[in-house]
Amino acid sequence: MPRTATPLPLSTVPRVADRDRRRTSASVILRSVLEHGPVARSTIARLTGLSPASVTDYCALFAERGLIREAAAPRQARGVGRPHVPLDLDDRRHVVGGVHVAVPYTTVALLDLRGRVVARRELAHDPADPVRVLARAADALAELLASAPGSGALGIGCAAGGWVDHEAGTIVDHPLLGWRDVPVHEVLQQRTGLPVHVDGHARALVNAERLFGRARGSRSVLHLFAGNVVDAAFATHDEVHHGPRSQAGAIAHLPLPGGGEPCGCGRRGCLQAELSERTLCRRARAAGVTDGVNPVHVVRAAAAGDPVAVRLLVERARMTGRAVALLLDVLNPETVVVTEIGSIHREDCLEALRAAVGAERAASVLPTSFPDSVLAVAGGAVALDALYRDPLAVSPDLN
Is 31 helix (H, G, I), strand (E, B) or coil? Predict the structure, then answer.
């Protein structure tokens, strides 16, 4: 006799469906307060399509957990009746911690519920001991929290370049740091006792842009990060594509037209070899612009009128624009956000980048919304994305 699968008890199906539906409803309501607040409950119901009773129940739960509050001045309803009391985020009671692991240093920060940086520190590190790097970051976060009395931490987000497995919470491979299979989630959670979320920094910044930045409302967003590490992330309808084991966005070794920089893989013209800030600083040292490894020094030299520094930055921005054009041809997003130091600080670099993309798509290419805090925001955005996806996961004990 052929064997048949044993069906799941019917009683388990609605429970799972109800849990997903509650999570989705909670998410769209809190997002509505973020995007439109101060906003009346009746307006939230209209925007989300949920019943007024459901909106009232969820908002009461969010207020209990310290996520929203009633705005100071009620709005008078049209005609006869009670005035509407608008709701807004309560961005004074809770923060999230952010950790961003870069090649030369680690950034730790506290962010409020609107993605604004409340406090931050940069920690020089020795990448030879990744557990010590993460432990120091956790301790520094604790110090920042101690200096911000009255703010409870909802969790910690950690972002880094390289191959980061979002679900496992590990940095699988970061060649520039020499890290392999580093258990980021485990180390930070044991050190802090807080919920920890881990992701790649390009994906983290896509989430920051769609929640708090210029890409809010875009149906599809591509983010290109060109720092020491060069990688990308792509989101459609609020969903960031991770791929199997979160390997999506690994573009370091895509060939860049016109590039000739030798790469460690044995080829020439790979995106990361051409666009890395390490390459920019090496070229600046060779030209006598600076004697260091900090790309900010090249930007400062250009601002002081050094024509060689200007040329190096504009050329790098132009090559970044060629990389954007390649990705546009493949993914065709509505909005492109680029994190690249020249286009952040100089209009001529942004113009060169857009010119390389082409006139038809130039207007869709934007510089990062967080020019002065991009690394701090990247770390915190990992935790904030988790919050706005599942507000019900916030413990009432954190109130």
Answer: helix
Burial of 19 (0-12, 13-18, 19+ CB in 10 A): exposed
Q: Give the three-class secondary structure for 340.
A: strand
User: Residue 81 in 3-state DSSP?
Assistant: coil
For 230, the enclosing helix (H) or strand (E) is strand 230-236
Taking CA atoms, 304 is separated from 141, 226, 266, 300, 309, in Å, by: 36, 24, 37, 6, 9
Return the pLDDT at 247: 87
Work out the percent of the chain whose per-residue pLDDT is above 70.
92
* Environment class of 118 (CB within 10 Å of its CB; exposed 0-12, middle 13-18, buried 19+): middle
Q: Which residues of the chain have pLDDT under 70?
A: 1-16, 73-83, 395-399
Q: What is the pLDDT of residues 3-45, one digit of tens each?
A: 444 444 444 444 657 788 999 999 999 999 999 999 999 999 9
Phi, psi torsion values for 193, nearest 5 degrees = 75, 10
Neighbours of 233 (CB within 10 A): 26
Answer whether 198's CB lies under 8 Å from 164's CB. yes
First to last CA, the chain: 58
Hey, is 366 helix, strand or coil?
Answer: strand
Cβ-count burial of 16 within 10 angstroms (0-12 exposed, 13-18 middle, 19+ buried)? exposed
CA separation for the pair 397, 244 (Å, rounded): 35
Whether the bond into 38 is cis, omega within 30 of 0:
yes
Q: How far is CA 142 from its chain centroid?
A: 22
Helix, strand, coil share of the chain (percent; to 5): 45, 20, 35
Alpha-helix residue ranges (DSSP H) falling in the chain = 12-36, 41-48, 52-64, 130-146, 184-192, 201-212, 271-275, 277-286, 295-303, 307-331, 341-345, 347-357, 374-389
